Amino acid sequence: MGCPLGHKSANNADNFHSSSSQMHETKANYRELEEGIHRDFKDDMSYGDYLNLEKILSAQQPLSDQHDEMLFIVIHQASELWLKLAGHELTCAIDNIKSGDFGHAFKVISRVKQILNQLTQSWNILATLTPVDYLKFRDALGHSSGFQSYGYRKIEFLLGNKNADLLEVHKANPAVYSELNQLLHAPSLYDVSIKVLHQKGLIDDESVLARDVSQPYQSHQAVLQAWINVYQDADEHFELYELAEKLVDIEDSFQQWRFKHMYTVQRIIGNKAGTGGSSGVEFLKKSLDISFFPELFELRTHL
Question: How much is the pLDDT for 196?
Fold first, then answer.
């Protein structure tokens, strides 16, 4: 029975305080929308418009009804975006070194290193795909394979791993084939770096600069000696010394990406042949023996 004088009973008081407390907690765990935040995008560009998210987020089209195929698609599409950025930055780095803008070259090369680290990390996510679950949709891939990635091929050509035979898989796409063919015949990041060594008087062998840049790079004694001289007098040649270490950073990160790729494939499909027709893991292992900047690693033995 309620109090005739209107006083709340103990129970009613408790309920009142409990309700007030809940209201307070709800308010405390709530962020009000500020008045200045723009809300009407009928005639204005939104975040989604700027990033073209409607097209990007509708690009995931699984060919099976298997849950994990979405993981497979997203990982590879995201990787292609990172590769696109890496190609953009490496192209800039080459132009920077040609023009002598080493400061900006170092900045974008450092960015490429972090992009490669990000790509390496992505294999840990894909490794959550078990062999049994992958086999449920692998046949839907047909002959499509990461080996056909022109973003990856572009990175390899920009860094100096040239191989004309690699263009064959891109002939069906004339625009891509043309771009890669141009890169095949253009100086790589290492080629322009070696040219700087020559300009600084550290290489006097003209044959080093006369080589066919569309061919795989071969270690050269004159280049090795030039880099040894840079490292032995790093204070005098600090800009070149820093450039060399930035290049080593890229190869280090790239090799980690290659290894993690190989190991993830081995974990998921063992020694099965690749969907693109390669021997699979054995073919991937061979890439670990390819160096973009061989003299920069050999010189360490001679210091």
Answer: 98
Per-residue pLDDT, averaged over 172-200, amounts to 97
**Is there a binding annotation on residue 198?**
no
**CB 297 within 8 Å of CB 291:** yes
Instruction: Spell out the residues 6+ positions from residue 266 whose beta carbon is closer than 8 angstroms to its own.
Output: 281
> Rounded CA gap, 169 and 125, in Å?
28
Reading the block at residue 64, the tokens are 């099976």
For the record, the structure tokens of 169 come out as 């898989």
Of the candidates 270, 261, 17, the one whose C-alpha atom is nearest the C-alpha of residue 145 is 261
**pLDDT value for 126:** 95
Annotated binding residue 134: yes
72 is in an annotated binding site: yes
**Looking at the whole model, is its pTM more than 0.85?**
yes
Cα angle, residue 50 at apex, residues 76 and 47 outer, rounded to 5° = 95
Q: Is 76 annotated among the ligand-binding residues? A: yes
Helical H runs in the chain? 10-28, 47-51, 53-56, 69-99, 102-126, 131-135, 150-159, 174-184, 189-199, 221-232, 238-269, 281-286, 294-302
What residues have CB less than 8 Å from 258, skipping those under 6 apart? Answer: 284, 287, 288
Residue 75 assigned as binding residue: yes
Nearest to 256, CA basis, from 113, 84, 86, 99:
113
Give 97: exposed, middle or buried? Use CB within 10 Å, 0-12, 13-18, 19+: buried
